[in-house]
Amino acid sequence: MKKLILILTFFSHFIFASELQEAINKAPEGSKITLAQGEYLGNIVINKPLTLDGVDKKAKIVGDGNGSVITIKSSNVVIKNLTIENSGFSVENVDSAIYAKDVNNITIQSNHMSDSLFGINLEQVNRSKVIDNFITSKDLELGIRGDAIRLWNSHDNQLLSNKIYKSRDFVLWYSSGNNIENNYGSYNRYSLHFMHAGRNMVRNNFFEYNSVG
Q1: Phi, psi at residue 22, to the nearest 5°?
Q2: Burial per residue of 68-93, b for 16 or more beta-carbon CB atoms within 10 angstroms, e otherwise
Q3: For 86-130, what is each residue's pLDDT tens digit?
Q4: Is the pLDDT assigned to residue 18 strictly greater than 80?
Q5: Is there a contact between 55 and 83 (Cβ–Cβ < 8 Å)?
Q6: Quick count: other Cβ atoms within 10 Å of Cβ 41?
Q7: pTM, full prediction
Q8: H helices present in the chain, as ranges
Q9: Which 8-state DSSP code applies to residue 144?
Q10: What's the alpha-carbon Rg for the chain, to the nearest Å?
């Protein structure tokens, strides 16, 4: 099946979440949505296989300050080259820049995430890739920031070359078979935090100025 390339170009400064969500809802499975430069108001939900590409991070998705900015509810989704900002503040709900649950084979690559409580939250997500993202939390005291990358019951993922700055933890709960390589973190709490998590590969990471190694 050929992939449809859908290029969204708008002249107004802000694009309402309903417009972007409508484009996602109408796109065929397996299509590629390429976002032009500009600000797109979240929050959005992706519930089918597709690619969302900001090309050079000049396409910015700005959350409404409640919940997660991007929620992934389908396997085989790619999120790349976007700037993502302004999640909610709820620790209980794990408000994140990107939240994915019960999916497999997703890719989150080369995004810039800021002003979000949690960065990337993966719950029961397997065989996926988190590569070359920049993540920083909200401007809060260290202990009440969210985690930059958080895995819960997620297995056989590739967590590579991410840059974490002024977040809380890089944490894996009940997660195994993950490859954690070439990541950089500074001014966080835990460099790496494992909870009931074994059989993970940690290699060639560099952490500095964190509270706990």
Answers
A1: -65, -40
A2: bbbbbebbbbbbbbbbbbbbbeeeee
A3: 999 999 999 999 999 999 999 999 999 999 999 999 999 999 999
A4: no
A5: no
A6: 20
A7: 0.92
A8: 17-26
A9: G
A10: 16
